[in-house]
């Protein structure tokens, strides 16, 4: 399978490198030429446009920032869809609205192109180690065709259902992570008020039954949410807003997890 990759930032760059090192014929395109520089020592080809990348690819992986970026790169002038041939697949690794993936899938189906949503969790270090988590939604056949490529940077790859289900799962994951940040941060703050060192409490809790990824993130950021707020506050705010809106439209009851996430966003000065 020939692979095209667009979105070579801190997350996408290591993913693309793993694909190249996995022996796949790989073509890259980037808005910012500087992000292509780390691939100068590889066999990866460089396309002049997304359309050219599409013409030389069977699978195109996108790791761009948001919904508008996905739409522009795929459907814009000289977009991927202008070059990708029938039978091609577009994998959306970005975290976007599930409806963005569903609508794009319907649009691409007219060209004989499949779309799967495949948001990721774990960050650049996990991609470098080949242990990224990929949450996939889409047609079974298309997903199976992509698995060997995904396996170069991911373990596990979990197929969750139809197009959009990967995005829903990622949003739920981020909702719970945000909620966990809030509960962990306030527990550490309460301990400090009661005379227990934040550093020592975090050391104990991270080895106990209440340990969490969120707690360890706070511990590694100085014991407060300040640094995490600057790094991820806006993105978590976006994701919580999305899942809250989807729950409301589905007449679903989020319950305590949304309350806790809202509290965390308020603590990070990024209220929903």
TrEMBL record:
<dbReference type="InterPro" id="IPR008927">
    <property type="entry name" value="6-PGluconate_DH-like_C_sf"/>
</dbReference>
<dbReference type="GO" id="GO:0016054">
    <property type="term" value="P:organic acid catabolic process"/>
</dbReference>
<dbReference type="GO" id="GO:0050661">
    <property type="term" value="F:NADP binding"/>
</dbReference>
<dbReference type="InterPro" id="IPR002204">
    <property type="entry name" value="3-OH-isobutyrate_DH-rel_CS"/>
</dbReference>
<protein>
    <submittedName>
        <fullName>6-phosphogluconate dehydrogenase</fullName>
    </submittedName>
</protein>
<dbReference type="GO" id="GO:0051287">
    <property type="term" value="F:NAD binding"/>
</dbReference>
<dbReference type="Pfam" id="PF14833">
    <property type="entry name" value="NAD_binding_11"/>
</dbReference>
<dbReference type="InterPro" id="IPR006115">
    <property type="entry name" value="6PGDH_NADP-bd"/>
</dbReference>
<feature type="active site">
    <location>
        <position position="170"/>
    </location>
</feature>
<dbReference type="InterPro" id="IPR015815">
    <property type="entry name" value="HIBADH-related"/>
</dbReference>
<keyword id="KW-0520">NAD</keyword>
<feature type="domain" description="3-hydroxyisobutyrate dehydrogenase-like NAD-binding">
    <location>
        <begin position="164"/>
        <end position="252"/>
    </location>
</feature>
<dbReference type="InterPro" id="IPR036291">
    <property type="entry name" value="NAD(P)-bd_dom_sf"/>
</dbReference>
<dbReference type="InterPro" id="IPR029154">
    <property type="entry name" value="HIBADH-like_NADP-bd"/>
</dbReference>
<dbReference type="GO" id="GO:0016491">
    <property type="term" value="F:oxidoreductase activity"/>
</dbReference>
<keyword id="KW-0560">Oxidoreductase</keyword>
<dbReference type="Pfam" id="PF03446">
    <property type="entry name" value="NAD_binding_2"/>
</dbReference>
<feature type="domain" description="6-phosphogluconate dehydrogenase NADP-binding">
    <location>
        <begin position="2"/>
        <end position="161"/>
    </location>
</feature>
<comment type="similarity">
    <text>Belongs to the HIBADH-related family.</text>
</comment>
<dbReference type="InterPro" id="IPR013328">
    <property type="entry name" value="6PGD_dom2"/>
</dbReference>
